[in-house]
Amino acid sequence: CPLDYNTGSKGCSECGKSFKKRSQLTYHQHIHTGERPYGCSECGKSFKTSSDLKKHQRIHTGERPYKCSECGKSFKSSYGLKLHERIHTGEKPYKCSECGKSFKSSSELKSHERFHMGKRPYECSECGKSFKSRSHLIHHQRIHTGEKPYKCSECGKSFKSSSYLRSHHYIHAGEKPYKCSECGKSFKSSYDLKLHQRVHTGEKPYKCSECGKSFKSSSELKIHQRVHTEERPFQCSECGKSFKSRSHLNSHQRFHTGERPYKCSECGKSFKSRSHLTCHQRFHTGERPYNSSEQKSHDRFHTGERRPYKCPECGKSFKSRSNLNTHKHIHSTHRLFIWSSTL
């Protein structure tokens, strides 16, 4: 490979990118050749370098040799530990030149910069959907493959990503290590804490291009957009009913199974969904959050906007979306009756 003697760097003959070490150049060239010479004997997955293979094998062995001296949390790689330690130090050395926001890692910054550019270079060959980062694409592809490589040693449940498994582990431990400095509420993951903090800041960075409504998370926006597209990709295998989100499907399936996994620690009553439990717990705490559905419904008496949800079929209006959805079943049942009568 060509060597630039002025800088002492080694340049890629394919794209011109330069590297300080020959090993870095060799690693980089695998991007162009697609070569992955290091195969995992456990699952057959291949990697560009022996160190990448070694890190991957720790998924199978469960080995986490790098331990944080601050909190005791362990990691598969020294780089993972280094990134984690920045949570304790608050160090965010990578700054966006566009908006000034800082990040713990160069990959986080790179992913963020694509928001400004509107760039999504990683495309799924299965469905054509594009992503800002390779890790997001890999995570998405597991929807198509059904692959869940991260298994809980406690209960055997498997997950698509290591972060999902980590969050799940806290269920067994009863641990919620991420605490909100504003109100003291604790969470299982840093992502859950970040979403919660937007309740205090009022930040809603994800905006619907169709109606302008804003949301705290990209997943909330995605679910909302299905109101416009009428897409309901999650179907119940028991009765065929379809839903906008997986959580709505999971909640619905409990009608069939009778499962009530969310238990009130105060009185022992169990519920089918977390939202029902949260709502119930307010009887014990007396809490009445400003943005609750009850509050919104009450506010409409003052504003005069008492029935904002209108049926597209007959024009009848309702106070809540749930009442409108219940009403819509009348039309679908009526259509089914007419159809069966013609047979």
Describe, in plain words, how this protein is organized in 3D:
- The protein has 343 residues and is α+β, with helices and mostly antiparallel strands.
- Helix content is 44%, strand content 14%.
- It has 12 helices and 23 strands.
- The N and C termini lie far apart (76 Å).
- Residues 1-8 have low confidence and may be disordered.
- Residues 10-37, 38-65, 66-93, 94-121, 122-149, 150-177, 178-205, 206-233, 234-261, 262-289, 309-336 form the C2H2-type domain.
- It comes from Meleagris gallopavo.
- Keywords: Metal-binding, Nucleus, Repeat, Zinc, Zinc-finger.
- Its main location: nucleus.
In CATH terms, what is the architecture of the domain at 232-334?
Answer: 2-Layer Sandwich
Text of the CATH class of the domain at 232-334: Alpha Beta
Taking Cα atoms only, what radius of gyration do you get, to the nearest Å? 25 Å
Low-confidence stretches: 1-8
N-to-C span: 76 Å
- Percent helix, as a range, is 40-55%
- Could you give me the name of the CATH homologous superfamily of the domain at 232-334? Classic Zinc Finger
Count of DSSP H/I helices: 12
> Globular, elongated, flat, extended or rod-shaped: what is the shape?
globular
Query: In percent terms, what proportion of residues is strand?
Result: 5-15%
Q: What is the typical, i.e. mean, pLDDT? A: 80
- Specify the structural class: alpha+beta
Strand order of the largest sheet: 1-2-3
What's the story with the biggest beta sheet?
3 strands, antiparallel
- From the 3D structure, determine the CATH topology of the domain at 232-334: Double Stranded RNA Binding Domain
Tell how many strands the DSSP assignment holds: 23
